[in-house]
What we know:
Elements: H1 2-22, H2 44-63, H3 138-150, H4 154-163, H5 171-187, H6 191-211, H7 216-235, H8 239-259, H9 264-283, H10 287-307, H11 309-331
Helix pairs in contact: 1-2, 3-4, 5-6, 6-7, 7-8, 7-9, 8-9, 9-10, 10-11
Amino acid sequence: MVTRLIGLLLGLLIGAAGWMIVRPLGDVGPTLPPIDLAQFEDLRALIGWGALGLGALALVVNLIPGGRKPARRATTSPFDAPITFADDPPAATPVAQPAVQPVAEAPLTLAPPATPVRHDLPPVAPGPDPSGPPQETFGQLRAVLRGKVRAEAWSEAGEILQRLPALALTHHDRMAAAQDLGDFCRGQGRIEDAAEAYGQALSYARLIHEIEPRDPVAAADLAGALINVGDMACDEGRVDAGLGAYEEAVVLRRRLVADHGARRLDRRALSVALERLADAREDRGHRVRALDLYRESLELAGALAAEDPQRYGQELQSTRTRLSELEARLSA
């Protein structure tokens, strides 16, 4: 945000200088002393209009939210099409119910109660009224949210996101609610709101990982939260912050692959994290390090594509393309 404000200020100053040089509308407003260009006086029009154009370009660039490279591989999100893996448990399928056979009605008989009634016991408090409205749970409301997003009912999805944190009972629920809000804001182009929500999700993910340091799910959630925070930092021009988040995510993903290397989900997530870190390294001018990271990612992507070409073949081709582009820039 600070970088963007500085860019806007510089754009205004450069554009104002160009305006004072060429005075496209003549002497309008307060009279200002002319700018002396000395030996460049013959190039007054070129310099003035060039400064105006450069200032306008700086204003446009800093008013439009920045973006990362188009080749960035996506991570899973409840606001995207779900990605499944061969290791994932199969979806539950409805079990056919046997046909109900008519049962002959038994004759009505009156029998004494099996146990005598105790009058010395305290009365039992009445339970909840079954006729009252059912209490909505966090999981149920989150499922409704996914349905609204698939139907692109954005206003209704936004209302659900406001209600979701009130139903969160655990740190994991609170992390998921912040994550959903970040995904929603990111899809709407609200980068600063998304960055704030992802930061909250990261705080809860760290807390969960501290409580359960050996839980692979907690480690994977923390790595995913770090990737999202890194993405937002790089989109806002804070490459150093994004670099730190990506490096921490790669450490966690390497550990998960070392402990659960047979799972495709962990290997793909490590490949994605390596490419995020490589892009940030390249932005900082560390092209040799970025090249090594992309080569490691290519090895993982190649193994996944060999196991399931239909699912991972396109990702392998994307990684090969990015690696070839980086090698060409490094050899130039």
